[in-house]
Amino acid sequence: MHLHKYEKIWLIFGVGSLLLFLTIIGFGAFYKGLQPQSHMMTIDPENVEAYDAFKQENLGVTKVNDQKYIVNVVATAFNFDLGKNEDGTPLKEIRIPKGATVLFQVTTKDVVHGFSIAGTNVNMMVEPGYISSYETKLDKYGEFTLLCNEYCGLGHHLMSTKVEVY
Amino acid sequence: MSDLPKKNKHSSLQKEDPNLRGTLISVLLLGTFIAVSWFGVFAIFVSR
Question: The complex's ipTM?
């Protein structure tokens, strides 16, 4: 088969980039252990409280130790449920110390929602029937916005919460 | 005039490569653009 000299150049370029990208994906998946955020973890969307993490008293920020925090959230139209404080008022903000490792575990009871903390890598799709989780280290001080980035209905634009890294 | 058919015969046996310089340059420009933007986004992801 006759190939033009230039054709060989762009075939090498194309096949080379394919191999490079496959290597990067393989490195992320098998060495770094990256996985899709809703990773085979299923839940009954009509009874999320059957799952320990989403019981009303376990919602919101839980401190495991100084360096490790867990944040459990149930997303519903059009609110991120972060649990209630002692006097029963719903919590409206997440506070995490800088440098701590945070595990976000999120599910939804109704429709597909987004869970995105703008300016960080926390960005998940939350689907009914699945638990989406993402572990990250928040190492920038400041106030961030947690928002829904999947159109979920008429109140979609109202669905946001403050995240403070102190 | 009489050697015209001869010439045609000759060129069909030893086809000259078409000039693909412009194609090469545009393919490489597009490929470089895609690769540079991909690595830019990847760098943002890794640094956050």
Answer: 0.73
